[in-house]
Amino acid sequence: MLRRAVSQSLRLSRHQASRPVSTTSVLFNGEKPADAEPATAATPEGEPAAADASAAPVDPLVKEVEELKAKNQELNDRLLRALADAENVRRISRVDVNNAREFAISKFAKSLLDVSDNLKRAHESISIEELHPDHTLPAIKTLHEGVVMTDAQLQKVFREFNINQVGAVGDKFDPNVHDALFEYEDATKEAGSIGQLMKIGYLLNSRCIRPAQVGVVKATKQ
């Protein structure tokens, strides 16, 4: 009987050893199988999640592009302002140069206007009758002709530099180019016109460098 009992005991031990271990009993015992793999969380949107992960690095590039666009716009604006400023400087410089040249000519021309006045007075001081050969010496006649020719040459130089005379009897009075010394009545002339010319005026281009000194006709009292 002892031999039978030992034989049954050995069979029972071999049977228990061959039984598989229940995972349920392991979990209840707080043990974890050594070869168990960690469970991965299932994503309901598998492919979109992967797409989002790959698209995430694009955001810094987009931001950098926007910054470069803004910087380029700023540089373009600064360039346009710089070009505009440079053009303004060139324009102002040209105006300043032209004004300086015109002022220099104006100052020089004014200094010659009195010379022209004196030449005119010189040849007007001798009347036509006095120039007759029977009433004057040939030397005086030659001198008069030289004065007239000199004045004519000076007026030609004036015209070459756009210096022109202004003011004549019969012209309408213009305060921009005429200096009224007096007024007088004259029924034979139009009121408001120049009746007498005391000193000729001059224009440089369109600017008056010396107004003409005149006497103006005023309306006749009835």
TrEMBL record:
<keyword id="KW-0175">Coiled coil</keyword>
<dbReference type="InterPro" id="IPR009012">
    <property type="entry name" value="GrpE_head"/>
</dbReference>
<dbReference type="InterPro" id="IPR000740">
    <property type="entry name" value="GrpE"/>
</dbReference>
<dbReference type="GO" id="GO:0030150">
    <property type="term" value="P:protein import into mitochondrial matrix"/>
</dbReference>
<dbReference type="GO" id="GO:0001405">
    <property type="term" value="C:PAM complex, Tim23 associated import motor"/>
</dbReference>
<dbReference type="GO" id="GO:0051082">
    <property type="term" value="F:unfolded protein binding"/>
</dbReference>
<dbReference type="GO" id="GO:0051087">
    <property type="term" value="F:protein-folding chaperone binding"/>
</dbReference>
<protein>
    <recommendedName>
        <fullName>GrpE protein homolog</fullName>
    </recommendedName>
</protein>
<dbReference type="InterPro" id="IPR013805">
    <property type="entry name" value="GrpE_CC"/>
</dbReference>
<dbReference type="GO" id="GO:0042803">
    <property type="term" value="F:protein homodimerization activity"/>
</dbReference>
<comment type="function">
    <text>Essential component of the PAM complex, a complex required for the translocation of transit peptide-containing proteins from the inner membrane into the mitochondrial matrix in an ATP-dependent manner.</text>
</comment>
<dbReference type="Pfam" id="PF01025">
    <property type="entry name" value="GrpE"/>
</dbReference>
<comment type="similarity">
    <text>Belongs to the GrpE family.</text>
</comment>
<keyword id="KW-0143">Chaperone</keyword>
<feature type="compositionally biased region" description="Low complexity">
    <location>
        <begin position="36"/>
        <end position="55"/>
    </location>
</feature>
<dbReference type="GO" id="GO:0006457">
    <property type="term" value="P:protein folding"/>
</dbReference>
<dbReference type="GO" id="GO:0000774">
    <property type="term" value="F:adenyl-nucleotide exchange factor activity"/>
</dbReference>
<feature type="coiled-coil region">
    <location>
        <begin position="58"/>
        <end position="92"/>
    </location>
</feature>
<feature type="compositionally biased region" description="Polar residues">
    <location>
        <begin position="1"/>
        <end position="11"/>
    </location>
</feature>
<feature type="region of interest" description="Disordered">
    <location>
        <begin position="1"/>
        <end position="55"/>
    </location>
</feature>
<keyword id="KW-0496">Mitochondrion</keyword>
